[in-house]
Amino acid sequence: MKPSTPHLHPRRHCNKPCRAYRPAAFFALLLSYAVLLLGIAGCAGPVEVEADLREINVNVEEAVIRGYSPQIYVHPKDSPQRELTAVMMPFYMMQSIDNPFHYGKEVSKIFWQTWLKDEVFKTFEFLETPSWPGEKAGISQARSMGADLVVGGEITTFLSGGDLGDSEMAVRLKIFDAHSGALIWSIAHAGRLNQRGTQDFLFFKKTSKLPYEPMYAITLALAHDMAKPVKQWMEKYREKEQEAREADEAAREAEKEKSQ
Hints:
single chain; three-stranded mixed beta sheet
């Protein structure tokens, strides 16, 4: 007796002729069952699909909604005559929240760091104080530090929704002449970040990937936007200085050619 050979796919014995095996029809049947099962699961609740976005570089500022560009109420008539130094003082928090000075200081530090990166001023220091010093005292301290300008202002709206709700912030930026105390810049700007949460579809639930800290993203966006007009003002002096250097260099080259 020959030993029986095991079959991975047992043969089917029938009296009628057997139909040929068709892969396309088989997979179509499987797909139909899969759609049916997903539909049943969708009735019970959405199927969550997660994706790891840690390897993707996302510009958090793109998610921040700004309904308008920075509103400039006061600005200098003349361009600077030299490179100016500045001191950043903590923002005054007008919103009624716990520990307002802490949040005002943290927001102003993000502005300070952003403007340092954007090179708005060549020399830009931060005024460390245990509490909000007030505009007059802040200007006086900045003057004693040898600064030409004082950057400060007020946070008029500060609503942090975290992961559960929308977040919003509005800032009124002020720049003073440290020597005279005169207000030379007044700029207002606002931004918000909507908590889009989840969007339900037939079979899947899409989860929105917001920045890990909405208020940081809003502050960063506002700081970049509000830096532009002030930097453009400072660039006017830098362009004149560059033109003067190029003119001096051309004059020296011309003198060398004459002497030769």
